[in-house]
Design brief:
Helix content: 25-40%
CATH superfamily of the largest domain: Glycosidases
Low-confidence stretches: 1-14, 20-33
Protein name: DUF4038 domain-containing protein
Shape: globular
Largest sheet: 6 strands, parallel
CATH architecture of the largest domain: Alpha-Beta Barrel
Structural class: alpha/beta
Pfam family, one: Apiosidase
Radius of gyration: 22 Å
Number of strands: 21
InterPro entries: Apiosidase-like_cat_dom, Collagen-bd_put, GH
Length: about 475
């Protein structure tokens, strides 16, 4: 066998092997279901999310924009089962999808509308959306539901539209879709869809009317939460336009698809705003995404960079974190037109490294007092630049514990004056495996300490957990 043929053979063999593993998981996982404890709500201190019984809800989301548009029932069940097994509790999905979601039929040949101008809906299309939402609920997963992708308001430089929404019909559509799903306990409403309101336009009002339409149909016994999904922007995300709007319950960012951005600064910006609202990075760098959309020169994203962004954001005060995989959001298969060069079919991409590591972040945050956690920018005493070495800390408000994230394992001076107790104990937490082990360095004191993680360099990130002895 020639070299090129041999490489192709082994690549195909590898894909088939991974797909077989996933199919085996699919056969087992659906029996491990867990009903949602919803609807989720804003915590009393307005910084986090809580479940219906007031226990913490750490937002750990996957991005599946085309879930309703490009899957069969069997595929949706397999996808949701595997994501539940991996520890995700939210998935992002769009009712009027990005990839020609108005005129392009779903996997069953159905489109959303019989006649949009008259608000005549195609019941067969929406029945499938109903099924998938219920399927998610049965597996303990909430759906961050976008009523529409933003190109249905304006296409900008990409998107096929059609541009169908204005102030009047946005309200009517919001009212209709809000009524349809008013009883669902696993929904979070996400307005917008990757479009920032244009200066001098009525875009802000259109999105506001859609949000108000959803509220007008809401069941008051089943409270709803609403946010807004923007494009990358500064200094905040949704907060740039809607922070003081009553309908915006929590802020959302899209921090973009470059690996070298100080995303924690955007979370920090929102954390300082008044009134206090939770904030979440709803679209960070995706796994196996072309870095800065330039695969030729910058290559594809790797788990190290994605993990660093996630820990940065949460330690800066975010109420959770979204994840995405470039092949999965678009449900890419070899017979579909690829968007920005996905590397493999979506079914195989479900098992990438970060998809299996995100649960470690969620489990770490839920392992200590949750609602009293705050960011602490003063624990790190070493001078720092906004680069990939940036060390960041979070702690319990009264000093019961602190966590410090070292993205590159650099030796750093830390100041634990804010912690209570004269003697401190510590452990190292490995973000790659979720394993903890005792800290064995010099005794930590309440003042300044020079701390060296177990290893250093790219991919050697660590969390130091410090608390009263």
């Amino acid at each position: 066998m020639k070299g090129g043929q041999s490489a192709a053979f082994f690549y195909i063999f590898s894909l088939m092997k991974k797909l077989l593993i996933i199919l085996c998981l699919w056969a087992v996982v659906p029996f491990a279901s867990g009903q949602v404890n919803g609807p989720i709500k804003i915590s009393d201190n307005k910084r986090f999310l809580a479940q219906a019984d007031d226990t913490p809800f750490f937002w750990m989301a996957d991005t599946a924009w085309e879930l309703f548009h490009r899957t069969t029932r069997e595929e949706a069940d397999m996808y949701l089962s595997m994501r539940a097994e991996q520890g995700f509790n939210v998935v992002h999905a769009v009712a009027l999808a990005e990839l020609d979601g108005v005129n392009g039929p779903n996997s069953y040949g159905e489109v959303p509308f019989e006649n949009f101008d008259r608000m005549r809906m195609n019941e067969k299309y929406w029945r499938y959306v109903d099924e998938v939402i219920d399927m998610a609920a049965a597996k303990g997963i909430h759906v961050a539901l976008l009523p529409t992708w933003g190109d249905k308001l304006f296409k900008d430089n990409w998107g096929v539209g059609p541009e169908i929404f204005n102030e009047k019909n946005a309200y009517e559509y919001g009212k209709w879709i809000g009524a349809r799903y008013a009883e669902k306990k696993n929904l979070i409403w996400v307005i917008g869809g990757d479009r920032n309101p244009r200066k001098g336009s009525k875009d802000e009002q259109v999105w506001t009317e859609m949000a108000k339409g959803i509220e007008a149909s809401a069941n008051k016994r089943n409270p709803i939460l609403r946010t807004f999904h923007p494009q990358p922007t500064s200094p905040g995300g949704s907060s740039n336009w809607f922070h003081k709007q009553d309908w915006l319950d929590f802020n959302m960012h899209q921090t973009g698809h470059c690996p070298n951005q100080p995303t924690y600064r955007k979370i920090q910006h929102d954390y300082k705003l008044n009134p206090a609202k939770p904030t979440i990075d709803g679209e960070p760098l995706y796994e196996e995404h072309p870095n800065c959309f330039n695969a030729k020169e910058l290559g594809y994203s790797v788990a190290d960079d994605i993990r660093r962004i996630m820990y940065w954001n949460v330690f800066a005060g975010a109420a959770g974190q979204s994840y995405g995989c470039h092949a999965v959001w678009q449900m890419f298969t070899l017979d579909r037109q690829p968007i920005n060069g996905p590397l493999r079919p979506w079914q195989v991409s479900l098992d990438l490294p970060m998809a299996n590591q995100v649960k470690h972040l969620k489990n770490l945050m839920l392992s200590r007092a949750y609602f009293s956690r705050i960011p602490d920018w003063d624990i790190v005493a070493s001078p720092q630049e906004d680069d990939e070495h940036f060390v960041i800390a979070t702690r319990e408000a009264k000093g019961a514990y602190a966590m410090v994230y070292f993205p590159m394992g650099d030796t750093t001076e830390l100041d634990f004056s804010s912690l209570k107790g004269r003697k401190l104990k510590a452990a190292w937490f490995d973000p790659r495996t979720g394993v903890s082990f005792p800290y064995t360095g010099p005794q930590l004191v309440k003042g300044k300490n020079s701390v060296a993680p177990p290893s250093s360099g790219k991919g050697n990130d660590w969390v130091l957990i410090v608390e009263k002895r």
